[in-house]
Amino acid sequence: MNTPTDPNLLDLFKTLGDAERLKIAGLLANEPLSLTELSQRLELPLNDVSNHLAHLEAQGLLQKEGDAYRLAAKALEQKARAVLAQSHPKVKSDDFEGDDYDRKILSSYIAVDGSLKSIPTQHKKLMVILHHIVKQFQPGIRYPEKQVNEILRRFHEDYAALRRYLVDNRLMAREKGEYWTL
Amino acid sequence: MNTPTDPNLLDLFKTLGDAERLKIAGLLANEPLSLTELSQRLELPLNDVSNHLAHLEAQGLLQKEGDAYRLAAKALEQKARAVLAQSHPKVKSDDFEGDDYDRKILSSYIAVDGSLKSIPTQHKKLMVILHHIVKQFQPGIRYPEKQVNEILRRFHEDYAALRRYLVDNRLMAREKGEYWTL
DNA sequence: AAATTAATTCGATGAATATCTAATTAATTT
DNA sequence: AAATTAATTAGATATTCATCGAATTAATTT
Asked: Who contacts A178 (Cβ-Cβ below 8 Å, separation ≥6)?
């Protein structure tokens, strides 16, 4: 069962993604209205309004006052925040986990946009970087070279070098122009 | 033509109200991905992903980086704010317009939740209040008494008194148990 | 209690649209 | 330039879901 507070974004968007329901929400944002009043204002049959209200209510978007409904602004606010939270590219936890050394290398070589400032020459540092980069590839999927290049280019324009390093160090394998992780 | 910035909430909710598109948005919130990559991750045919991306793009939700897409977090943020703005019961402009005297009376008699603190005894003050209340009724609509009571009760528990005042002062008319504004 | 009105529920119809197949166009690679 | 691959577009099918009609239940009024 769905509590109104659990952020099922999909259903929320679905219920708000209907013209009539959005109108209803709009009206109820400004003034409380009863079922009958809504029906009159929108010139919509009573039963349909009732159904629409049920949808909105299921999303925890309404609060009842007597027999009038009002938009639960607080609830909506929370949900809007949930959307923002999800949309903000939170640095994935495993991106910078690992030991202190790794974290230090990563943060010094990787720019805010995720790209490489430069390719390390020291082998130990290089390995840290390569292990970070190889996470971009899904295990079990075979990537054509062109796509590998695309992905690597996001890190550094010399994608060919990165590709070679990855293979040489056995982080990825290649066969007939296809690559996969090991 | 719709600029991506104009807040057409309905279309926004519609595009986000599809499971696949929401997944896509979710993925692109955390990392940039190309069309092909998305297709692989979601195990969805390429052409459909292309269409979904077109939808998202039409809402100004994407920004392109090379051939990878990323969720336009800023844009989404703005839109979320737009939602909040609409949802907040902004005191309707005409609620407190009119001359200074009216405004003064209204603000002294009407509580934050819109209800009446008390019913004025002075006729002049009463008229101000009644004119404010009568705006709750749509011109041209005939309301059964029960509904009139409901609406008036939001202002004061003695809805019968309000109803009588409204009729006596010719702000509303009644016939056979139905009321309407004049 | 009977009758009226309000509100919900059920089933069927229709419209919108996601999904699928196929064809077309655009871009890259050899 | 030919050929391969990537991406878009077009059309057909299927599914989802709002809308409509009616019946049912619940609540108020007389």
From this structure: A142, A143, A144, A145
Portions of chain B given CATH number 1.10.10.10: 9-87
B110 - beta bridge partners?
A: B116
User: pLDDT digits over B86-128, tens only?
Assistant: 666 554 445 555 667 777 888 788 876 677 888 888 888 888 8
Give the whole-angstrom CA distance, residue A171 versus residue A134.
7
According to CATH, the topology of domain B93-181 is Arc Repressor Mutant, subunit A (1.10.10)
Integer distance in angstroms from CA A152 to C1' D13? 40
Q: Is the minimum distance from the CB of A169 to strand C below 7 Å?
A: no
With distances taken from each CA to the C1' atom of nucleotide D5, the closest residue turns out to be A146
Q: Does domain B9-87 have CATH number 1.10.8.60?
A: no
Chain A residues with CB under 8 Å of a chain B CB are 9-10, 13-14, 16-17, 19, 22, 25-26, 29-32, 34, 36-37, 40-41, 65-68, 71, 73, 76-77, 80-81, 83-84, 86-90, 92, 136, 138, 141, 147, 150-151, 153-154
pTM: 0.68
Residue found under tokens 């926004």: B12
User: Tens-of-pLDDT digits for all 182 residues of chain A?
Assistant: 444 434 478 889 999 999 999 999 988 988 889 999 999 989 999 999 999 999 998 888 888 887 889 888 777 777 777 776 666 655 444 555 566 777 788 878 887 667 788 888 888 888 888 888 887 777 667 777 877 887 787 788 788 888 888 888 888 888 777 788 87
Looking at the DSSP bridge assignments, the partners of residue A179 are: A143, A174
B182's tokens: 């004049």
B13, B61, B155: best mutation site toward chain A, by most A Cβ within 10 Å? Answer: B13
Cα gap A95→A171, rounded to integer Å: 17
